[in-house]
Design goal:
- By secondary structure, the protein is an alpha+beta fold.
- Helix content is 35%, strand content 25%.
- It has 14 helices and 18 strands.
- It has helices spanning 7-11, 61-69, 89-95, 98-107, 120-129, 138-145, 147-156, 176-188, 215-225, 281-301, 329-343, 362-368, 390-393, 405-420, and strands at 17-22, 52-55, 77-79, 110-115, 132-133, 165-168, 194-198, 207-210, 229-234, 238-240, 242-248, 254-265, 269-274, 305-314, 317-324, 349-356, 381-385, 395-402.
- Strands 10, 11, 12, 13, 14, 15, 16, 17 and 18 form a nine-stranded antiparallel β-sheet that branches.
- It is globular and about 60 Å long.
Length: 423
């Protein structure tokens, strides 16, 4: 149907093009708080030697040195040294494009701007850099990335979705909270638990479960987050949460990137990903057929870029629940693994997880996890990335690389023991 092609080749298969990575998440959210950080550094190990990486803040030289020692990453780094959340990375580029344009002139290739999420300013940034955009218009992005709008698209395509109600937030209206409570209580009359999802939130933001005893507290938290609308649905008994990844290239070609198995806490908050979905052939076939309908519709509408469709497999059926019409966390993981495989050897199994240790430098982290740290020689190992919050909160992410699932389990247990000892 649609053959696999690496994400790198979906972005550009032309040696005369210069890929410029800008992995800033800020443009996705109408309101930013302490729970949102830009995560620009996630693309440092994704980039190849002839790519450009643009950072909001300052480069972690120790992490960069470690990457380069293993033949990963690029030395073409632009640092904007911006630490407030006032402007997104694309806005910083539009306001001062010269640092990026200087590298474009030096290298002399046609630039392609690759942002995390495509909004209005991403189009402007590409324009000011004289670059093609690997992304979509803001209209196309929001049509599919917004959870409520995506449900409407599915219904128009004849795809079954979870029963639910869209609800607009109006904190200035004293009756708005009561209206939300009434809808929730109506669902609670036929189910035990209700899930509430912000239409733009991701990674656990504006995502709640309730049995009806904390609705006012939830309402206030959502209002404070800046979410303009939410979806209220019955909470289902879910056996698995596959993520089906696709890409539509700049010329409109549709490419399958593979299906992942998501690991979710409390049945809803994504905390990790496995390389391949663990599901029956019938389930995989059902998901693929549904995805083809959705992705074909997106291509026809003019969407370009990455797609990650989240599904739930439940007692009541298989349903698409959201469309990450942007880069996904595991999109970067896949590209990192591709880079490692090119310089090392095939990776039969991998698992992506978020983890926490005591706040420290990257150099200190490597000392803590040295026995399992990736060294470019041993297969069963831990590859750290997304380390920009490591010195502040101890939060980072890793890819567990292994020859089989038993080794994945062993490495993960060893890693957790090493980082817990540091507390």
């Amino acid at each position: 149907m649609y053959e696999y092609q690496s994400l790198r080749k979906c972005i550009s298969n032309n040696d005369n093009e210069l890929i410029i990575f800008g992995a800033d998440r800020f443009s996705q959210f109408p309101c930013r708080d302490a729970s949102v950080n830009s995560k620009c550094d996630r693309v440092l190990p994704v980039a190849r030697s002839d790519d450009v990486v643009v950072l909001r803040g300052k480069l972690d030289s120790e992490y960069h040195k470690w990457l380069r020692s293993h033949g990963l990453g690029s030395d073409h780094i632009v640092e904007y040294n911006a630490y407030s959340g006032e402007m997104s990375l694309s806005e910083l580029i539009v306001n001062d494009p010269e640092p990026v344009k200087k590298i474009i002139r030096q290298i002399g290739k046609k630039p392609v701007y690759v942002p995390w999420f495509s909004g209005r300013m991403e189009t402007e940034a590409a324009k000011v850099l004289g670059a093609d955009l690997f992304g979509a218009t803001e209209t196309a992005t929001l049509k599919y990335n917004d959870k409520s709008a995506f449900k409407t698209v599915c219904q128009e395509l004849g795809i079954a979705v979870v029963e639910g109600t869209s609800f607009d937030m109006h904190p200035e209206d004293n009756n708005n909270c009561t209206d939300m409570e009434n809808i929730i209580n109506e669902y609670l009359s036929t189910c035990e638990t209700v899930i509430i999802r912000g239409t733009l939130g991701e990674a656990g933001m504006s995502l709640y479960k309730t049995k009806g005893n904390d609705i006012s507290e939830i309402y206030n938290e959502i209002a404070a987050s800046g979410e303009r609308s939410i979806i209220i649905e019955p909470f289902m008994n879910v056996s698995s949460s596959p993520n089906d990844q696709w890409a539509i290239s700049r010329d409109g070609n549709i490419n399958s990137l593979g299906m992942r198995d998501q690991i979710c806490e409390r049945g809803m908050v994504h905390v990790g990903t496995l390389k391949e979905a663990d599901a029956s052939a019938d389930t995989l076939n059902c998901i693929t057929k549904t995805s083809v309908k959705i992705v074909t519709n997106m291509a026809e509408f003019g969407y370009r870029g990455i797609i990650g469709i989240d599904y739930i497999v439940s007692d009541d059926g298989i349903f698409p629940v959201e469309n990450n019409a942007r880069f996904n966390g595991s999109s970067y993981v896949s590209m990192i693994v591709d880079n490692i495989e090119e310089s090392f050897s095939p990776i039969p199994f991998w698992k992506f997880i978020k983890i926490r240790t005591e706040a420290c430098s990257f150099l200190e982290l490597t000392e803590r996890i040295e026995p399992v740290l990736y060294d470019g020689k041993k297969l069963n190992s831990v590859f750290p990335f997304s380390c920009d919050t490591l010195p502040l909160s101890g939060d980072f992410a890793v890819i567990l690389l292994a020859e089989n699932m038993a080794e994945i389990f062993n490495i993960e247990e060893s890693l957790k023991e090493m980082v817990i000892k540091s507390f």
